[in-house]
Design a protein that fits this description.
By secondary structure, the chain is an alpha/beta fold. It has a five-stranded mixed beta barrel with strand order 1-2-3-5-4. Helix 5 runs parallel beside helix 9 and helix 6 runs parallel beside helix 7.
């Protein structure tokens, strides 16, 4: 790395440095340089604390660099490093002061080539399949009427927007964690996001990304990530696109779809059905009420016809007057009683479905200018708002309007 004269003077001051000072200042220059290196493992040994130390050789000119990957990351990526393995590592270089040796500290490691990635995929698929992680009997049903949804994906791109545009307005409470979803470096992000949602109150977890190659999908074929999904305490939906090999995370999830739109539709299906059922109930109640009114009207006309015949009966059958009057009055009474009971029955049904009844359950009705407010599109800052509760009315002024379309947690 070339330094301008001023920068060089500022860094070293042209004064003699101790070895430690020089190494410290040199590391301050090279540590921030994060790069990717491709090469072949020429030497590998596992340290006593579990850290992996290895050498990476350039196939073209034989150049060699010493590398190290710490135990936690080595176990996280699940790749066995042995002589002859061709890999890509990402990270930074630094000088180890006690030995003066330059080493490359790896943040991630991945295999090179479609063939190697496919072989690793097949091996892990067989291993986890033998353990029963993908067994159909372990799949949990996606809960009906889920409201609290956790989402893991990148805030970049169209995936999260497609999901939100299709989730519908059913009162969902959505929590979103922005995570890398591309390549091997996404493993750490995904594990951290999953563990975060384990501590939160959600009904279902949705993990999403678009399609891509095996290299792009490395994090979704990672053993640790797959195991975390398999044992997640709530049902998991995987909305991960793929062309050939199904990501192992999708196999371990309780439901797998290939698009965010399909995931949104899966969650709204039960809500859409309940609204259709309520519409049918409403139509049936109104139709029944209408039919009973028609029947009552007919009965009243029949009774009126009986009364109109009294004059003829009095003129022609005087001796049967008392009996006829009693029978007519009894018929009228029975008809009216029956009609009254039917009308009361349907009035009770209509009353039980009256939205104002819900006020006793803790709900409220919002009105602007005497009209019920169903959507924030009809509300404006400064509007007078009437809130009808079970025991009174609260009058207030709208100061702020917030749409459920905006998500918390975006970075």
């Amino acid at each position: 790395m070339e330094l301008k004269d001023a920068e060089q003077k500022n860094l070293f001051n042209n004064k003699p440095l101790t070895v430690g000072q020089f190494i410290e200042r040199a590391n301050s220059l090279i540590r921030p340089l994060t790069v990717k290196i491709i090469g072949e493992v020429s030497q590998a040994s596992l340290g006593p604390t579990g850290h992996m130390y290895f050498s990476l050789k350039d196939e073209n000119n034989g150049a060699v660099i010493s590398c190290a990957i710490w135990k936690s990351r080595y176990e996280m990526f699940g790749i066995e490093l042995k002589v002859g393995t061709k890999i890509i590592v990402s990270g930074h270089a630094e000088i180890y002061a006690p030995t003066g040796r330059l080493s490359f500290i790896c943040d991630s490691v991945e295999l090179v080539g479609e063939g190697a990635l496919k072989a690793a995929y097949d091996k892990l698929f067989k291993k986890l399949g033998a353990e029963g992680l993908f067994a159909p009997e372990k799949k949990r049903p996606i809960p009906k009427y889920a409201r609290r949804i956790g989402i893991i994906t990148s805030k970049q791109g169209a995936v999260i927007h497609d999901f939100l545009n299709n989730i519908g307005k059913f009162g969902f409470l959505i929590e979103f964690i922005d995570s890398r979803v591309e390549g091997q470096l996404a493993v750490g992000d995904l594990l951290a996001s999953i563990k975060t949602f384990k501590k939160r109150e959600i009904d279902v977890l949705v993990i999403m990304r678009g399609g891509g190659s095996l290299e792009a999908m490395l994090a979704f074929n990672n053993e640790m990530v797959v195991r975390e999904i398999a044992v997640f305490p709530k049902p998991v939906i995987a909305a991960i696109g793929h062309e050939k090999d199904v990501p192992l995370v999708a196999m371990a999830a309780d439901a797998a779809v290939s698009t965010p739109t399909a995931a949104a539709n899966l969650l709204t299906l039960s809500w859409q059905e309940i609204f259709r059922v309520l519409d049918r109930y409403e139509n049936n109640i109104i139709a029944g009420y209408r039919n009973r009114l028609i029947q009552a009207h007919t009965q009243l006309w029949q009774c009126a016809g009986i009364l109109s015949n009294f004059k003829y009966i009095l003129q022609n059958i005087t001796r049967k007057l008392d009996i006829t009057i009693m029978n007519s009055i009894l018929a009228i009474k029975n008809g009216l009683d029956s009609t009254k009971k039917q009308i009361a029955y349907f009035q009770n049904i209509v009353e039980s479905h009256n939205p104002e009844r819900q006020l006793k359950l803790g709900y409220s009705i919002a009105k602007i200018n005497g009209k019920i407010l169903k959507t924030i599109k009809k509300a404006h800052i400064g509007n007078d708002l009437e809130m009808f509760l079970v025991d009174g009315i609260i009058n207030s002024e709208i100061k702020k309007i917030k749409s459920y379309g905006k998500q918390k947690g975006d970075k």
